[in-house]
Amino acid sequence: TGLPRCGTSFGDLNKALSIELNSNANCVWQIHRTSNQTIRLIFSYFQFAAASSCETESIKVYDGPSTNSSFLGQVCNNTDSVPVFESSSDSLTFLITTNSENFTRSFFAFYYFSSLEPKTENCGGLLTGHNGSFISPNYPKPYPEFTYCVWHIQTARKSKINLEFDDFFLELDKNCRFDFVAIYDGLTTNSSLIGKVCGRSQPKFESSSNAMTIVLAADYANSYRGFSAQYTSIPPPGPAEPNTSLTCSSERMEIVLSKSYLDSLGYNSTHLQLNDASCSPISTDPVIFSFPLTSCGTVKTVEGQTITYTNTITASATGRIITRQKSIEITVKCKMENNSTLEIMYITENNIIQNETATGRYNVSMSFYSSDSFSNPVLQSPYFVDLNQTLFAQVSLHSTDPNLLVFIDTCVASPKPDFGSPTYDLIRSGCNKDDTVVTYPPLEHYGRFKFNAFRFLQNSASVYLRCDILICDSNDRNSRCAQGCISRQKRAASSYVWKTNAVVGPIRLKRGHRSTDHSESLTEVRAEETPSLQQYSFYTLSFVVLTANIIIVVAVILKYRIQHQYGYQKMQSP
């Protein structure tokens, strides 16, 4: 405290900085001490002019003795975190600039060199259980000076996290400038800030996803007993994810519904019926309906060369006056086309088709479409396709802001929904890595590309896609979205508003029905024992060429025999 109004240099091991600036400031502070130590700088409070932007007012931090050193980051009016910067050496510099508005800006920061960091237990870590607890260092005794601990919590997919502090006692300050706990809505401190607390209380927080980060930071004085906290995982609302399958043959249709899924909806096998209510399931755990294509009220439609058999399983609420159960309909279709079978199943609950989307500050969804017009989304899951069929994928941003642009940075395919090994790059850093990939120019809130269907060798027949999505300001011509393909060597820091990822799948290959004696299961396809996708393609091409040659030879032989037959008959006709 008691600093010069505009910039100075410090050589202390630690210091608290209370800074006030007015308009048109351009002030530089330097921290340096000749020692083999690093520096941690924490801006625990900052107040810029209300209407300012990062271009007009900011704190810029540099990893070295001057503003010509490497840029570490900046703090602006819209910064949604408690900024913490760490140097790689014994020097750190920060520059504060303000605009022309006549207003007193206030900043509070403190720094310390690494030699002052305490060596304590119970200081941070990764927690992955369904529930758990953690405490501040030395609890219930006072936590050490210059404590800095980071805990990461990650629970089951699609769950949320409820965090409660049973005991909480930190140094009290109206703006929590000295000692504080910061809670972030994600797995890093770059995630959205849920809250910052200090003093005495029993605060509670809830995340919007299955990840949360908690930071405890303390300055050089007035430590108290800290905290004791516990967390629990909140399961996703509504029913469990549908565990269903549909198998079509040239004669029958078989539908499988898991008992756990029906239990989550409050139903059992006795509540279900097909179009013909007299048809009952042949098994109750799991529930299995198996019946001929032309029975149980199945509706047959013919369109061109395609024959479609459709049936519906319904489950209605059982209450006489009121109910808290969802009415559910499961529509199943078997499409017979070109000597193959396309199996389609989709589920509606209260007339809403269940569809998975990426969540965050922007609502982003990813879907397949039936053609390059991108007008008819594919609603069935799994999506059954032919090998080498052209697939059309679209990422959609649902926002009323017209000045946003969607860019598909990376798309990776995997036979596993958790994207474990092996994986295959379709797009990487905006560059097409597969020969069949074609990306369409960015169009407002849509990112589009197409590729040819494939499957992984020696793995399951399913293929899942995960795409990293960037959202940029469409007015920024230098944004990452405007740069397109960038090689790893040329890649540099560039701007984008938001980054997320979307997952879609599974894609599965159709099953051929050339012979009822040669059938495959819906989820198991035998993979050829070949070392690579290129070798598989070579064998396929060789088989096609051989088949074509056989057909040509047979045609020549038949023609030769027919000509000789006709010649013999003419000699006997006089």
TrEMBL record:
<dbReference type="Pfam" id="PF23344">
    <property type="entry name" value="ZP-N"/>
</dbReference>
<dbReference type="InterPro" id="IPR042235">
    <property type="entry name" value="ZP-C_dom"/>
</dbReference>
<protein>
    <submittedName>
        <fullName>CUZD1 protein</fullName>
    </submittedName>
</protein>
<keyword id="KW-0472">Membrane</keyword>
<dbReference type="Pfam" id="PF00100">
    <property type="entry name" value="Zona_pellucida"/>
</dbReference>
<keyword id="KW-0677">Repeat</keyword>
<feature type="transmembrane region" description="Helical">
    <location>
        <begin position="536"/>
        <end position="558"/>
    </location>
</feature>
<keyword id="KW-1015">Disulfide bond</keyword>
<dbReference type="InterPro" id="IPR055356">
    <property type="entry name" value="ZP-N"/>
</dbReference>
<dbReference type="InterPro" id="IPR035914">
    <property type="entry name" value="Sperma_CUB_dom_sf"/>
</dbReference>
<feature type="domain" description="ZP">
    <location>
        <begin position="247"/>
        <end position="488"/>
    </location>
</feature>
<dbReference type="InterPro" id="IPR048290">
    <property type="entry name" value="ZP_chr"/>
</dbReference>
<dbReference type="InterPro" id="IPR055355">
    <property type="entry name" value="ZP-C"/>
</dbReference>
<dbReference type="InterPro" id="IPR001507">
    <property type="entry name" value="ZP_dom"/>
</dbReference>
<feature type="domain" description="CUB">
    <location>
        <begin position="123"/>
        <end position="234"/>
    </location>
</feature>
<dbReference type="InterPro" id="IPR000859">
    <property type="entry name" value="CUB_dom"/>
</dbReference>
<feature type="domain" description="CUB">
    <location>
        <begin position="6"/>
        <end position="114"/>
    </location>
</feature>
<keyword id="KW-0325">Glycoprotein</keyword>
<dbReference type="Pfam" id="PF00431">
    <property type="entry name" value="CUB"/>
</dbReference>
<keyword id="KW-1133">Transmembrane helix</keyword>
<keyword id="KW-0732">Signal</keyword>
<keyword id="KW-0812">Transmembrane</keyword>
